[in-house]
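Reviewer 2 asked us to include a model.

Predict the structure of this chain.
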Amino acid sequence: MRIALVLNRFYPEVGGAETNLYFQAQELSKRHTVTVFTPRRLPETLKKETIGSFAVRRLLDVKNRLPNIGRDTFMPGIFFRILFGKFEVVMAFPALNRNNILALFAAKLRRIPFVLCSFDLLDYAEIQKTTGAIDPHCLEHYTPSRKRQRLLAMCSHIFAISNREIAVFRRYNSRVSFSPVPVKTQEYEGAVDAVAFRQRYGIPADAMVFLVLGRVSRIKGQDIAVQAFIRVAAKMPGAVLAVVGRSDYEPEFLAGMKQAIHDAGLDDRVIFTGMIDREDVIGFLKISNVMLVPVRFMNSGAVIVESWAAGTPVIQSDAVDPDLIEQGVNGWRFPSEDVPSLADRMLESYGCRDRLPEMGAKGREKVLEGFTYPKLISIYEETLARL
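Predicted model (structure tokens):
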């Protein structure tokens, strides 16, 4: 098949979604002709290039200047690229934004299938930022505008990564199914020099490491992890908390956590790395003992699947959807924003350190069963062939 992928962000940006979409394009292009369309964001990136076996076209974003860090983009050229291209199917990520709506209209004029692959139905981080809170059940009360309802109904198929979003989409379009957020398991199979890696980040060789991975923001809940660690640090001699991820989005939020850590006298036991490269992300996943996912809201649980791929068990909030945790088998669950409960789970994991590798291995088994790129692509191909 000749497939057009329409994305808002793509390589060389490196985040969870960008990495996922890069590997999806790579895997799809093994058997199909794939062209990625995305806004141009850096002056040095080429407007047209081939990466491996797929093509990339970076189109003009009329809403933002270069360098372009805008979340909201608009590339009118996508309409004509789809309308006059020779594509047999259009796949759009991660939501019905302006660019994807244009691609939808062009696909309808061409009478070719348009598949929406939704990562986030709403901008949950913005809701958290502007209102100061987010209800994990907010989608149960959400009704899209009539215009958006009609757009959703026009989609040939919709893939969604969480059960709560699937429930919303099915109100307006019966052609909806679950798509797992996968990992490239080979990334996690290489050896890491744990001693050298720990030394580079100032982590003692015998320290138990609790890891929080992701962009530092209120919706991700790093403050909940920090408060829980402060609460039980004295009962966990030698334990370290590593907060790994870009930290320039919400500076006041970051400053508040650092002040709390300083006031508790734990500056030497909590690490903020800021943005690091992918190789070091994998390194942290492999040398850490437990992953903390204290989110206030999360679709997909991608970081949980990543942790298990690296053989690391998880302590997650119950705001993660889908919930893949088997309590005490591959990790633990705690009520969202419940600091004492998270602290108790951390203390429990500290007390059974010898079992953690076995729990991580149980998580990896679940990943290999249903959360790999070949598995995801097989789900896509079955639907695309039918369409």
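The longest strand covers residues 33-39. The chain has two domains: 2-182+372-386, 187-370. We have added this to the supplementary material.
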